[in-house]
Design goal:
Number of strands: 6
Helix content: 25-40%
Strand order of the largest sheet: 2-1-6-5-4-3
Radius of gyration: 14 Å
Number of helices: 5
Distance between the termini: 30 Å
Structural class: alpha+beta
CATH topology: Nuclear Transport Factor 2, Chain: A
Strand content: 35-45%
Order of helices and strands: HHEEHHEEEEH
CATH architecture: Roll
Number of domains: 1
Length: 138
């Protein structure tokens, strides 16, 4: 699968709340980075199992109902795609709207995610979630 196909599949799995499947897209030594993560939260996860463990309870905190915008940018490197997308959902505990924009830079080799840099707004997420992120519960 090409990088673009993997990102499309990742978004489908996110909407299906299939976090094990989502994490299963990572290479066994793949990396998930959060360059804008607040203090006290992991900035880097290494390995498929670390990603799976981190995201295991995500649907208990955020109910993503739609990807409302999506643009995939191919780069000069065929293994790298930049995804811009917005999601619409509800924070489970607070019942507040969860509407967030993301930019992800995704590197795929041999059909697996090798590096996923996830750029998102932790302040907006914390507001929707009632002052804490789901990461503190995982």
């Amino acid at each position: 699968m090409q990088a673009r196909d993997i990102v499309e599949k990742a978004l489908e799995l996110l909407l299906a709340k299939d976090m094990a499947g989502f994490a299963g897209l990572w290479a066994s030594d793949g990396v998930l980075e959060f360059p804008f993560t607040p203090a006290g939260y992991p900035a880097r996860l290494t390995g498929r199992e670390a990603v799976r463990d981190y995201l295991r309870d995500y649907p208990d905190h955020v109910d993503i109902r739609a990807v409302t915008e999506k643009t995939l940018h191919e780069t000069t490197d065929p293994d790298v795609v930049v995804a811009e997308f917005a999601v619409d959902g509800v924070a489970v505990r607070t019942r507040r709207p969860y509407q967030l924009r993301y930019v992800a830079v995704v590197t795929v080799r041999d059909g697996e995610i090798r590096l996923y840099r996830d750029y998102w707004n932790p302040v907006a997420a914390a507001e929707a979630l009632g002052g804490t992120g789901f990461a503190s519960n995982g």
